[in-house]
Amino acid sequence: MGWNRKVLRVNLTAGTCTEEALNMQWADEYLGSRGLATKYLVSEIDPRVDPLSPDNKMIMATGPLTGTMASTGGRYTVVTKGPLTGAIACSNSGGFFGAEMKFAGWDMVIFEGKSAKPVWLYIENDKAELRDASGLWGKSCWETEEKIKEQLQDPLVRISSIGVSGENQVLYSCIVNDLHRAAGRSGVGAVMGSKNLKAVAIRGTKGVSGIKDFGAFLKATNDAKKVLADNAVTGQGLPKYGTQVLMNVINEIGALPTRNHRDVQFEDASKISAEAMHEKRASDGKTHLVTNAACFGCTIACGRISEIDKTHFTVKNSPKYWGASGGLEYEAAWALGAANGVGDLEALQYANLICNEQGMDQISFGDTVGAVMELYDLGILTA
Ligand code: SF4
């Protein structure tokens, strides 16, 4: 299958980037980015390691289908010992970054050690080098992407970065790629921040190698795409409504955790649902949803691109938030909304943007705020 058979090992303490062969026995035995990267991680670290110490490692990995035309094959995975739970963290992201890693000729990048000063990694096909990130430290994920593209004079470079959240090692920081896709869960962004690694930028022009029988692969992927297209969920529900389609469904069956799990239904669920994203606003006659969007090579195209009402109190003085951006997904809409009793769709879109901008996991953030609100209600926390 589509392996490049190459791993990039980046030692941040020494400032070196070295190439090594992918362990093909492990690639066969632990199929997929998650299994393979986990095998590498547990083979290389002491399980008792402090997740935020230089002795922890962080692996960005692709799978055998990444970068191919297989639907959902554009994803990549970050595996590390996670600071939030102390267990193995495996966080997965869509967009285009994973495919670009494959196109540059790498299956996996292993980060070890800790840089003495902030750095970012630039990979251009076979070349890899660490660059000074002192001018990027303190910047958001969005500003970081913009500045790296400017510096490289390359609008097509794909970037994963941490925001201020990851720099400060907030335990549920994420790694954001392509502006609004994220390896979001388990605090992988905090590990990246602990290593003084601000961003990884990749430009690859090689395509995918290693597919033995391209004709058979083409037939298999096309057959699978037909199955997805003919299915009511992957062919209709997800492209039209995205994952947020779950909001009304889960609320109806009484399984929507509301106000820090104190209730199981939210009276304003319909106001923050996927259907509401399609409704025209009274203020400007536009729908919240601008279009759906796909990760690399995916025909499901469940991603959401939306716009906030420019007159809403959250953004009316902030033009930078007026453009189209990613969201909402079901989990973010639930955690920022129902989990806190908030039924204002614009407010959720705004909170979602801030989390993407600063590299913070919307789900853990929303749930944490919900817990704080209950603790306040109970008098355990005070103003
Ligand atoms: S478009 Fe949706 S289904 Fe396809 S890879 Fe991206 S997140 Fe997954």
UniProtKB/TrEMBL annotation:
Cofactor(s) this protein cannot do without: [4Fe-4S] cluster
Keyword terms: 4Fe-4S, Iron, Iron-sulfur, Metal-binding
Q: Which intervals hold domain Aldehyde ferredoxin oxidoreductase N-terminal?
A: 3-206
Name any one GO molecular function.
4 iron, 4 sulfur cluster binding
Q: What protein family is recorded? A: Belongs to the AOR/FOR family.
Q: What is this protein called?
A: Aldehyde ferredoxin oxidoreductase
Species:
Thauera aminoaromatica
